[in-house]
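Give me structure tokens for this 162-residue protein.
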Amino acid sequence: MTKPSNISHEISRRAILKSGAAATTLAMLPLWAGRAEAACGTLRAGITGFNVINTLDPAQMTLIPEAYVVWGVFNCLLKFDEGMNIVPDLAESYESVSSTILRFKLREGVKLHDGVEMTSADVKFTFDRLRDDATASPHQSKFAPISEIRTPDAYTVEIETA
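Here you go.
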């Protein structure tokens, strides 16, 4: 009996590597499944290509690698969606009350790192800290047009510009 010429019994290096990777992954599944619950309390992230991250304080960051981490850790009142449209994030909604006043309605139930609910006083504190000379934020000039920040209730922030 002759062997058909179109059938090959050779195994490529790529096929061996794929099989080895699949076997290793399958062998590791019980280990990962057992550790998943224990790992829920800590997030560890590897940042490659960057050798300097001096701060995780949004008021003090100056380097692009720091900004990447800060953007990944902290939320903002507003953010960009996939289409680069401005959409609410910590704010539930926002509106322009006049040519100098922006009003943000905050989402209820948002928890800070210590479990306390975020309120308009927290947002005001953040802006006031950025504007304070004692903080010496390199971003202070970006907030110079703000003349007043009001918190009419626990979930409303009004920012007035000059």
